[in-house]
Amino acid sequence: MATEENSHPKQALQTDLNEDEYSFQISHTSETSHLPPRLSSDYSSPLATSPTRDSSASPYLDPSWDQSHQTSPLSRSPWTSHVENNSTNYSYTGLMGSLVREEGHIYSLAASGDLLYTGSDSKNIRVWKNHKEFSGFKSNSGLVKAIILSGERIFTGHQDGKIRVWKVSGKDSSVYNRIGTLPTLMAYIKTSMKPSNYIQTRRNRNTVWIKHFDAISCLSMSEDQKLLYSASWDKTIKVWRASDSKCLESIKAHDDAVNSIVVGFNGLLFSGSADGTVKIWRKESQGKGTKHFFSQTLLKQECAVTALAVDPSSNYLYCGSSDGLVNFWQGDKLLSHGGVLRGHKLATLCLAAAGNLIFSGSADNNICVWKRDGGEHICLSVLSGHSGPVKCLAVEEEQEQKGGDKQFIVYSGSLDKSVKIWRISSQLVPNQAEVGTSPPQNFPSSNSCRVSQRRK
């Protein structure tokens, strides 16, 4: 594959020493120093743990970060792009290439059009444009566990329990500025004035209810983009008003870490936890505001729930678990259980839905591609190429091809410190995923998925 390691412009961090957050842009510099790779011993996902895991002690509370790099200038990109020349051929289906980083394991992805945002256990969120490094921004919090896009704003969820809000500069599209932190400093000070606003946390410590006291695991936006939801290993879900960053609610949702939340089906909120349950929360109007109420427990099992995804176009909810299974429910049939997708040998860590395709990433290093045809699911392919657990997925639909064939660009982030880029067609035939010319050493592996459907 073609390597474009030397084609990237050099960079320098632009920092404001009066702030704890920074932004940087691509700029030319005469220096050629390198950012050395940093290794982490945490190769196992906390999401794959059993319900007996003690979530009160986050494995990221005492990380061994190299603090000397918090404000170090970054004079050379730690990214290397490996993209096949045939990736511009729109009849091509398969592995297009890889984005390999030296900074750390990939924990979060978000895609919008030609932009890709990647978060890792470094302090940086990288921005890619057309698969080329474009820009980025950083904070002092370390691990970036969640990224979500809403209009011109980017929300990032971090290990320290805070949510950072970023926006592109109006003068330079390669510059990202931090415009806020949730909870805001003023809200935190105001709330801390009243003793009744404190809740008890682990080790007999107290904190104000508007702040997560453990790592944020995931973020989700309401369908009208007015509410932001954050879930945490502290077992709670918090509801934020997007317009002014006010924390409206704190929901004591589960008995263990909340690993995933997703909104769908006319405003229903679904939450999945290491306690083995999937719960439904309904939103109701109360005066000038809204409040969320528990509706029902959709699933209760021994193994941890690790990922959720909703396909709003067809009212399907998908749930991945630490046993490698993917359960699904049909929203237009009162959320009746539809069946189980069996495609992984180890924990399912992430899910994504687009069109009539569902993608599941796993600790077995593979990605299963499922096609829904009516109420039936067919496994089209197993994407093999990562050398570490697949931790996050993002999908973008390409322009529809002739004959109604829909093409999707799939980004997969892994603990092997790489992001792989795949082009997948909805017209793939099961066990014949290799269409056109594809890298034979990486894509695809033999199909080994099974589907257990509930017959009506």
What fraction strand? over 45%
Largest sheet: 6 strands, antiparallel
Helix/strand-derived class?
mainly beta
Mean pLDDT: 77
Radius of gyration: 21 Å
Which regions have little confidence, pLDDT < 50, spanning 5+ residues? 1-77, 85-90, 432-447
Number of alpha- plus pi-helical segments: 1
The main sheet orders its strands as 1-2-8-7-6-5
Number of strands: 34
**Helix coverage percent:** under 10%
Could you name the key traits of this structure?
456 residues, mainly beta, six-stranded antiparallel beta sheet, five-stranded antiparallel beta sheet, 34 strands
Report on this model:
Helices cover 2% and strands 50% of the residues. The N terminus is likely disordered. The longest helix has 8 residues. The chain has a six-stranded antiparallel sheet, with no helix packed on it. By secondary structure, the protein is mainly beta. The termini are far apart.
Question: How do you describe this structure in short?
Answer:
By secondary structure, the protein is mostly beta strands. The protein has one helix spanning 185-192, and strands at 11-14, 21-26, 79-83, 94-101, 106-112, 115-120, 124-129, 132-139, 144-150, 153-158, 163-168, 176-182, 198-200, 206-208, 216-221, 227-232, 236-241, 246-252, 258-264, 268-273, 277-286, 289-300, 305-311, 316-321, 325-330, 336-342, 348-354, 357-362, 366-373, 376-384, 390-397, 407-414, 418-425, 450-453.
